[in-house]
Every structure is written in structure tokens, then in C-alpha cells.
Amino acid sequence: MSHTSPPDQLHDTAPAVEGARPETRGIELIADGERHGRARDLFLIWAAPSVSILNLTIGASLILLGLEVWQAIAIIVAASLLWIFPGIIAGSGPAAGTAGSVVTRAMYGILGNRLFVAVVGWFIGAVFLSLTWLASSFMGADLLRRTGLEDPIWVPIGVTIVVATITIFVAIFGHGLILRAYPYMAGALFVIFLVVAGFILPTVDWRYTAPEPLTGAALWSALTIGFTILASSPLSFINSPDIARYLPRDTKPSHITLATALGGAVPFIVFTSIGVLLATGLSTPAFEAGIDVALLDLLPGWLGPVLVVGVVINTIALNAMTAYTSSMALQAIGFRLRRIPAAIIVGLVGTALTIYLVLSSNLVEAANLMLQFLVVVSGPAMAIFTVDVVLRRYRYDGVDLFDDTPGGRFWYSGGWSIPGITALLVGGAATAVCLATSVWVGPVAELTGYIDLSVPVGMLVAAALYAGLLRTPLGKDGRP
Q1: Residue spans per domain, the chain
Q2: Range ranked top by mean pLDDT from 91-100, 301-310, 329-338
Q3: Residue 313: what pLDDT?
Q4: Long-range own/partner contacts, residues 212-221 (CB < 8 A, 24 or more apart)
Q5: How far apart are the C-alpha atoms of 130 and 125, rounded to whole Å?
Q6: Which of 428, 424, 454 is nearest to 441 (CA)?
Q7: DSSP 8-state code for residue 33
Q8: Is-contact 454 376, C-beta < 8 A?
Q9: Confidence of residue 410 (pLDDT cuts 50, 70, 90)
Q10: CATH among 1.10.4160.10, 2.30.40.10, 1.10.760.10, 3.90.220.20 for 43-475
């Protein structure tokens, strides 16, 4: 067995439950005696990252697509239903007693999972680290510009570095600090963003109609592209088992699903819808200046700094969670790193990508384009994970998952699970050919008049193919 063999891991007794010291445990198995918490604790843990300026930005961008207010809010509600998927897979964490990046060995095989985690896990992590740091960089830089610090390069870079440093500090302290701090962070964010919403509402054009109302294929194109952008958020949280893994083994999966899904969906609906309303009162020059700048212009002088503080808190909440789980992904790939050095590496990579985006794009352009491309990997991966959880009924043996020797239960065919890898690749290809972005339009999207069916098609293809192949001789070794 490898350096991650379960007997060694069960003797690691440094979970830092209270957050008083850095958590040294990474992907190691968690003994039943070290489990703690309740399923409902997950609600506020997931709410804190979802009270986001990124949601406001995405909501405003739906108006740019040409949608009416009611149409935009309708697809926000539809996309919020996808939060059920992170909820379903979260229960695999306490069932297996380890991180989701180890649980996926059951889907892709020992070696196949290394490729999956390296490409899919890291891509998702890098996108969200950079996008949320980008939001705080732009808003922090704009606030400092109003005080006389106007350097367009070094000011946003400096903000990025400061926020990234705090974020990685939280990630280093890990699960215990997340469990203790996130409920307070969620409460502070709700208050800040609701106060901001109170100042936004008087600017809303309640009689707003699109300048050129969309009909036919143009309307379906805008609706489906908007849905894809929105769907990328819940579908990206394939790390939800990592946050739930300390829960007692007998915690009901249905309770975990409900707390996780509602924690993500409720603020997602509320604050993305507020972004839609915000956009109705903005002029074209305001859009061109950026939603972040326009929002600060709408607020009284005392509230602007408070909002920026809120954005920074949200950024830390989301990215600390991402960096925390990405550090365990590095371990699952096979790097001989403790979790803390791995978290620092994740932070450096995310900071570098954020600085590149700061210098090359604005927030709306970066968010929409990257979130659309994200579904090529996140949609099929989430579908496969969900199917596996449902078929196995949360029966994951942590000891078997760490047996990476030929002949182990999850070694499959030379270390690769043919059903899992095939479903992921074919599902990703199906997503790509149905995708419609500003730089890539798949052949199916082109034939349908730029209607973007990437999310439902990619997920259905991946789910059906994975479930089907498990029932053939190709999947006999990995059959639940």
C-alpha cells in the first residue's frame, strides 16, 4: 500500500475540531470517535460562500442577455434546483470517512482518479479561486481609487495578495475554523448585503422591459445561455463531501442533502435576483464601467467600504473552502505533501491566475466566459458522482478506497475504471458540442440557433452511459 494507507491515517489525531490550531489531517480516514457535528450545521457553512458579489454580477448579466426580469428570475429558480446534487453527494463524505477526491476512486479507479482530480478538481478550484478573488480585487481597487490610490495595476494586485493571504490562513486552520467561523460570516454577510439591497431597490426600474424583446430562437438562446452560466455554480461544488466528512457515520444522508442544498440555494436565489433588479436601473455607460463600480456609485459613502468588507468576507469564505478541499485533492493525486503545504501551493497558483485576469479582463466578461466553460467538466462529473452514490446507497468502505495495490477493490482494469472514464469523456464532449459562448459555439448549438443545451445533455449522457456501462462486462469489477 501507499503512504496513504488507512492504518497510519487512523492514528492521526489532529482534526483541530475547535479551530484553535491548524488542522494537520488531510485525506486520512476519520475514526468514529473523532466524528462530531450535526447535519444542520452545514446550512450556514454553505450559505456564507453563496452570499456573493459574484451572484449579483451574474444576475445583472442576465439583463445584458436581453431577458425580461421575470424570465431572468425564473431561470435563477430553475438553476437553484441543481443545488440538490452537491447535497446528494455530500453524504459520501461521512459514509467513507474521507475526502471526496478519494471517494471518486470508486468511479474512476486508482490511477484514473489521479487524472480526474488533477484535471477536473484543480480546474474547478482554480476557476472559483480566481473569479472570487477577482471580484474583491476590482471592488477593493475601486474603493481605494476613490481615496486617491489610482494605480490600475499595483492596487488591484496588492488587494489580491492581501485577500489571498487571509484566505489561505483560514484554509490552513481547516475544518475546525470553518465550522466555527462560517455561521458568523454568513450572518454578517446577510446583514451587509440586505442593507445594500435596501439602497438598490429605490433605483430599480419596476416597469423595465427589454429594449428589444426576444422571441423564438433568440429567446431560447438567451434563456439557455443564462441557465448554463447559473448552473455552473452549484455543479462546481463536487467538494461537498469534504465539508461533511467529520459528521457521525449514522447521520442521515437526507438531512445532509437538505442542509447543503438549502444553504447554497436560498442565498443563490435571493442575491442573484437582486442582481437582476440592480441591472434594470443601470445605464449603458454604467454597465461598461463594470457592475462592481456601478454598485459603489449607487451607495452612500459610508456604505461603500462596508460592502467591500462584505465582498472580502465572502471571498475568504468561498476561497478558503476551495483551497482547503483543493489541498486534499493534491494529496489524492499522489503528491507526498502534508495538507498545509498543499494549501499554500493552491493559494499561490490561484493568486497567479487572479493577477492575470486582473490585467486582462473585467468582472462580467471573466465570470460569464469561465463559468460557461466550467460546465464541460463539472456537469458530467457531478452526474457520475450522483449516479454512483445512488447506486451504492452511500456504501463506501474507506479502507478499500485507500487500497491502491493491483488487485484492490478499486484497481479495476490496470488502475482505470472504463465506465467512469468513458462517461466523463463522452459527457464532456456532449457538453462541448452543445455549448454556446462568445468564443466557442458547438455544432449542435449552431444548428439550433445558439440554444445552449450543454448542461442537461452533458449530464444526461454522462449519467446514462455510466449507469449503463456498469451493467456490462466492462463494469463488472466496479458494479455497486
Answers
A1: 43-475
A2: 91-100
A3: 87
A4: 212/66, 213/66, 213/68, 214/66, 214/67, 217/448, 217/449, 217/450, 217/451, 218/66, 218/449, 219/71, 220/449, 220/451, 221/436, 221/449, 221/450, 221/451, 221/452
A5: 9
A6: 454
A7: G
A8: yes
A9: very high
A10: 1.10.4160.10
